[in-house]
User: What shape does this take?
Amino acid sequence: MINTYGQPLFPDIKYCARCCMPETNEGMQFDEMGICQACQSSEQKIRINWVEREKELRKILDYYKSLNNEYDCIIPISGGKDSTFQLHVLTKVYGMRALAVTFSHTWFTETGKYNLQNCLEKFDVDHVMFSPSRSLVNRLARQSLFKIGDACWHCHSGVGAFPMQTAVRYKIPLLIWGESIAEASGRATHRNPVRKFDRDYFTQVSAKRYPEEMVNSEISLREMSAFKLPSVEDIEALGVTGIHLGDFIFWDDERQMEFVRDVYGWKEDKVEGTYKNYKSVECRMAGVHDYTKFLKRGFGRGTDHASQDVRAGLLTREEAFELAKKTDTERPPALDYYLSITGFTEVEFNAVMREHRAKVTAGGGLTDAAFNEAVQAYRASQVKP
Amino acid sequence: MNARTPMDLAAATATELLPLLKSRAVSAREVTQALLDSIARNESKIHAWTYLDPELALRQADEADRHLAAGTGGKLCGLPVGVKDIFNTSDMPTQMGSPIFKDFTPGNDARVVHYLRMAGATMLGKTVTAEFAVHAPGPTCNPHHLSYIPGTSSSGSAAGVAAHMVPVALGTQTAGSIIRPASYCGVIGFKPSFGLVPRTAMLKTTDTLDTVGVFARNVDDVALMFDTIRVHGIDFPIAHEVLNDPARQQIGDRPWRVGVLRGPRWDDAEPYAQQALLDFGRRLREVPGLEVSDVVLPDSFNQAHAIHGTIYDRALAYYFKEEFAAHTLVSPVMYDIVTRGNDVSVAQYQEALKRQTALAHELDDFLNGQYDIIVDLSTGGEALQGLESVDRPDNCLIWTLCGVPTLNLPVFKGPLDLPFGAQIFSRRYNDYLLLDFARHLQANGIIGANTALPPFTA
Ligand SMILES: [Zn+2]
Ligand SMILES: [Zn+2]
Assistant: This one.
């Protein structure tokens, strides 16, 4: 048998020359050395004057404090590590009076519940949470697979829309997220950041589909209220602005995780689909989300994390490919739960994903046959006697 | 340590200082002040520091004293550390040895600096680096003889530790930038395995080579620093597994299998240095528990320098294209490297990376089951005269290329009575095994428990 240790799963796909990100990742762009934007961003960060950026942040925060509203800002939180870190920075370092806002995906793990509760207590902030009905979530989780190829439209869309609704309702024009999209997504760099938060931005980055598009014979428009963005007029009248902390302060999410873990008692846990124990720890469906990404694009969360480790000098590229293959190709136990709430059979699930893969990788070197062959060969090579 | 004069405090190792600090026999302020005094006496001759703010250092020491008094200090509480000036620091500029970044304030800490601060250490100041940690040397002089080179690029860190200005310091190695300065300055230098210490928020020169390491005057100090700056836990599954694998990290009942190497650059070493290594091999044969034999590497390792050169030049050209564009502020040596690198095609670069991986595996196979430790010269002799001198060719970069852990032992003196060292290395990821071997040598009197030199008088 050919030794494929340290080789990428799909030999016909182009991968970043430095990390493990494949060309099938959304918005992927390689430079003349074949290096991806996320890798480029990680170098730009060392040459950026973060003192200047921090001054910009301070100016923005001071302005919103000076408005003397009931709340200075909204911090959308999920209970993940970024939530705790955002609350630390904004309340402890900058003294912002924040309203924490959570859109509940309703799939909280026990660790996720603990982490959310823990940060609310540690930071003593007011909190608003919206939880859609369980049956609606189940129906949307099914429709989501057809429409966007993962289980989580309600989550992607709710975390964008609900905090915006809250902003308009409570007249709090500033929303503050955590990680910059220049960090790992590969969709921007620190030299070309995205700082525009309109209706289209959210849909493009996260939800992919407007709520109207999710309506079918089983889902009515009037059930979609939590997912609708406020009107353009309302957003503009209030002057809603959104910022990512990661565009203003040097972001090292692993270091931040260790910090909130060691200082605030934030808890890690095993997460399906990756070898790291801290991302999406709050969601029991994370493994399904990442597995669908793998079925669609040929890589999952393991690849994202391994690529980050390569950038940080913590893995060789071949070690990274090996770790990524192992976690990306694993069928997550949570798939059983997903099938049970949506009524899909596994055959149906795979058929839907096959169609998404065909769309994503058209002309991209990842035919159905190539996909299956590579995955089967890899799985066979992993079987221990 | 009984006498606690300021001179003693400046010469003490971290392992000696920490219990004194913890028991409040001395304060962090006293220790920091003793080091600042030592710097004040000698810095105008040695030039180890590129940024030093005594008040900032003392403020950190006072903070450490508050923690020590309250019993809330971390395991390095009150320990002053020197930081090579390519690591970001939130409260000091990071200039990377380049006029382009003069007074640049990044506004954050490198992850390793953060780890050290969380452990309670105080950042004494920033130490001199070669321009962008490459070749153009900084102003640092060898503390043993001021007109001799200290070795690049972590020169300030090595000289500062040697001259009793700071007990421990951070460095980095892309070719030989820890081992060489440690050799010339007569201190212990440690470059861990590639993949154990995070590089976040520090200057990147070459992806597959840059490795963070430390300088100290005692093996236990090295271990203490390494434990603090390396990654821990199951979020790093490979490191977690190998570092906790007794089969890799412990020798058990059998003797140490030690190879004495005549490497690919043997002929470039001075005859006295060759002789010193061979004599050292003979001395090791008398140390209990060692099985010593001679080693010659397979021929493929003769390619290592060419592979390293291709990767290094191309990567530097890529990462420094902005600085290169502003070429009036870039040194001629940097300019030459980048120009060379621009001539390397992407295909040649990719091929060189593949060969790096292959060579790393070959070294691993070669060592696995045959040798626990290989002993090599750190440099081909003692330091050279003239601060612009270029090092003799040596094997350092091969061990960096292969990602193995390597440690300089200050064990030799040259004809001018200047120090140079032997380096010992092991399989990639056998870092604790390597440190254990160094301790074994220390226990048998081959290296001292505090390799501090006589107080600096040049
Ligand atoms: Zn990349
Ligand atoms: Zn989800």
Remarks:
- The two ends of chain B are 26 Å apart (CA to CA).
- The mean pLDDT of chain B is 95.
- Residues 6-443 of chain B form a domain with the Amidase signature (AS) enzymes fold (CATH 3.90.1300.10).
- The longest strand of chain B covers residues 406-413.
